[in-house]
């Protein structure tokens, strides 16, 4: 844009000059195009080779009966009809959805923490760091730690509950408590992250809004519902979307803490079932079909959320 | 659906701790005006703050207790693990467990493998990602926005959907049980990083790049001497986040790595959890877990400011 030739009348350029200039311009841009293409090439190659190609392959493989090694026999939509009739699939889907209960709980606690930390409290940097440490710790290590903490007799959780006179269940061995156990752990691990994002949003709210509201005699609760909550809404949206996507892929803690899918299959998640079918039972065709359904479900849920978010869009002034 | 750039900057400044003098400046101002002194919204009651400090402290104990317990268990004798009520301070301290972790288990090779994967992926991948972000933000290429959207679509596809065909691909070329399937697909660039850096580069005026071009600088030179220094803070933050992600990954390594000496650290400790739990050797398992957490923890404590700033920005840049 900065390299377009100036108009001929003003500079006294001849037609040849302009032609030459345009040619040089094209040449210059050709070089730029080449470099730009070269710089973009690696991620584009990665996208084609490790996303587009596997996706296409997936769609075909989901229509076959296949163990991953031998021949693929085309079976049409059999895998999908099998999936609809597979109680384990529905159970795994239900478990995966159930884990999402932890998302609103975690967000509510994080927002409360962020509001507290946004005040002038001594040691807030220290608190922030402590709350954040579980986030950076490896999920594998955390899962191992909590598996042991949930031990019915010697675990930390039941010891702590003992102190306040509650006789805790044998968490991971009990079909009613295994899912809540995993939810509690996930909330504990993710708290620091959402608190941090909320804290940033809360501190970015202009103080003049609160001052104006209190001049008008708005109560603390009113100020929260009418100012804070709408102002942090973009962060809430971001956290809900990312948490649901991450939650739909829950695998690590399931596989480490309940390697067999939990008591009466109460903890098996969708990804865990896919993984189990593909790499333990070598039902690659069926597992691929399930993985595709998972991908589509995530896409639909995300699209719905964007729709809702657009409907709720507002502006403060 | 986005906070404006100003509020994002204010947020990161506040998070970085620089916000405190800000508030300090505001308080006396309010007093001078006097109007808000009595029941101003920005006035904080010390009693409420004291109560909140207590609640936050209890919360901090809940957050820290399991981790402290992990360290404490790793230093106990095998039998002391089952003591009732549990002891928080091991008696005696068994430091030997950590020697056993390194001598008798695959933790050391796990660290080595994890480092190979994480370092190669993040270092090379960061170069590729920033080059692509530079080209997408500042260079001319017909259809580059379509390319960007195409790359972004990759974020929509969850890894579990791709893992089976990817596994089959890599097993065909004999890469199963090597670190290559963990490196090659991700080393070519990270969409999140490209997205973030591209946004960041929009604040850099085009005229800067044009001027350098007129001076005859090559594109690589413009990138290294001009763009890179400008985006370094953003690159550093994204780099650290990516490193943590790769270091902590579990699903991809567990699919590809079978031989114990080739496994990454997270798979090694997960397998130890199965193997040694039957021998009731919890101190050893916990010691390995502590070792897997420590490197990232150290990195976090050193770069805390940058990491926190970057996370706050990613959240508000949506």
Compact summary:
The complex is a heterodimer of chains A (317) and B (318). Chain A has 317 residues and is an all-alpha fold. Chain A contains 15 helices and 2 strands.
What does this structure look like?
The complex is a heterodimer of chains A (317) and B (318). Helix content of chain A is 72%, strand content 1%. With 317 residues, chain A is an all-alpha fold. Chain A folds into two domains: 15-79, no CATH class; 87-311, Orthogonal Bundle (MetI-like fold), CATH 1.10.3720.10. A two-stranded antiparallel sheet of chain A has the order 1-2. In chain A, helix 4 crosses helix 14 (270-280) and helix 12 runs antiparallel to helix 15. The longest helix of chain A is centred in the first third of the chain and has 47 residues, at 15-61. Chain A is flat. The two termini of chain A are 37 Å apart. The model of chain A has no long low-confidence stretch (mean pLDDT 89). Chain B is an all-alpha fold and 318 residues long. Chain B folds into three domains: 1-34, no CATH class; 44-97, no CATH class; 105-316, MetI-like fold. In chain B, 74% of the residues lie in helices and 0% in strands. Chain B has helices spanning 5-33, 46-74, 96-104, 107-138, 144-153, 159-172, 180-187, 191-201, 206-214, 219-248, 251-256, 265-277, 282-302, 304-316. In chain B, helix 1 packs across helix 14. The radius of gyration of chain B is 25 Å and the shape is globular. The N and C termini of chain B lie close together (7 Å). The relative contact order of chain B is 0.13. Chains A and B meet through helix 2, helix 5, helix 6, helix 7 and helix 8 of A and helix 1, helix 2, helix 4, helix 5 and helix 6 of B.
């Amino acid at each position: 844009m900065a390299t377009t030739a100036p108009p001929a009348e003003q500079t006294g350029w001849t037609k040849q000059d302009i032609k030459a200039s345009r040619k040089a311009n094209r040449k210059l841009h050709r070089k730029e195009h080449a470099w730009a293409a070269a710089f973009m090439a690696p991620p584009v190659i990665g996208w084609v080779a490790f996303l587009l190609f596997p996706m296409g392959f997936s769609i075909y493989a989901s229509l076959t009966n296949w163990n991953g090694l031998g021949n693929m026999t085309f079976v049409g939509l059999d895998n999908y009809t099998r999936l609809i009739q597979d109680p384990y699939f529905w159970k795994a889907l239900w478990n995966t959805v159930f884990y999402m209960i932890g998302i609103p709980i975690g967000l509510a606690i994080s927002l409360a923490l962020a509001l507290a930390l946004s005040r002038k409290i001594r040691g807030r940097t220290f608190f922030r760091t402590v709350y954040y440490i579980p986030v950076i710790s490896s999920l594998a290590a955390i899962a191992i730690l909590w598996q042991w903490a949930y031990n019915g007799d010697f675990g930390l959780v039941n010891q702590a509950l003992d102190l306040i006179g509650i006789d805790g269940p044998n968490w991971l061995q009990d079909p009613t408590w295994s899912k809540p156990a995993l939810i509690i752990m996930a909330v504990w691990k993710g708290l620091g992250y959402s608190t941090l994002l909320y804290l940033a949003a809360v501190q970015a709210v202009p103080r003049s809004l609160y001052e104006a509201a209190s001049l008008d005699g708005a109560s603390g609760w009113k100020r929260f519902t009418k100012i804070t909550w709408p102002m942090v809404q973009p962060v809430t949206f971001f956290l809900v979307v990312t948490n649901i996507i991450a939650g739909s892929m829950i695998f690590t803690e399931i596989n480490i803490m309940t390697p067999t899918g939990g008591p009466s299959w109460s903890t098996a998640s969708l990804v865990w079932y896919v993984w189990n079918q593909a790499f333990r039972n070598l039902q690659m065709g069926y597992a691929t079909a399930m993985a595709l359904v998972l991908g589509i479900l995530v896409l639909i849920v995300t699209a719905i959320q964007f729709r809702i978010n657009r409907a709720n869009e507002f502006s403060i002034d | 659906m986005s906070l404006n750039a100003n509020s994002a900057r204010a947020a990161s400044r506040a998070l970085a701790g620089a916000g405190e003098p800000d508030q300090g400046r505001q308080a006396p101002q309010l007093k001078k005006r006097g109007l808000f002194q009595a029941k101003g919204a920005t006035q904080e009651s010390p009693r409420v703050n004291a109560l909140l400090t207590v609640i936050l402290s209890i919360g901090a104990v809940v957050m820290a207790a399991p981790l402290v317990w992990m360290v404490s268990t790793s230093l106990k004798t095998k039998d002391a693990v089952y003591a009732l009520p549990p002891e928080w301070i091991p008696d005696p301290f068994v430091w030997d467990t950590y020697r056993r972790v390194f001598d008798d288990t695959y933790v050391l090779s796990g660290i080595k493998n994890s480092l190979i994967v994480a370092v190669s992926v993040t270092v090379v991948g960061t170069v590729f990602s920033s080059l692509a972000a530079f080209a997408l933000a500042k260079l001319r290429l017909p259809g580059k926005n379509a390319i960007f959207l195409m790359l972004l679509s990759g974020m929509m596809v969850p890894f579990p959907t791709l893992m089976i065909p990817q596994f089959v691909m890599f097993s065909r070329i004999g890469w199963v049980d090597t670190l290559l399937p963990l490196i090659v697909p991700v080393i070519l660039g990270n969409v999140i990083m490209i997205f973030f850096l591209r946004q960041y580069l929009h604040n850099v005026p085009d005229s800067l790049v044009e001027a350098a071009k007129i001076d005859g600088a090559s594109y690589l030179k413009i990138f290294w001497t001009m763009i890179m220094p400008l985006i370094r803070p953003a690159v550093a933050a994204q780099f650290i986040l990516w490193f943590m992600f790769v270091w902590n990954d579990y699903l991809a390594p567990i699919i590809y790595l079978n031989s114990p000496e080739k496994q990454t650290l997270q798979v090694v400790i997960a397998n130890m959890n199965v193997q040694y739990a039957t021998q009731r050797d919890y101190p050893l398992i916990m010691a390995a877990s502590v070792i897997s957490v420590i490197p990232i923890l150290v990195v976090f404590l050193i770069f805390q400011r940058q990491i926190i700033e970057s996370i706050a920005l990613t959240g508000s840049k949506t």
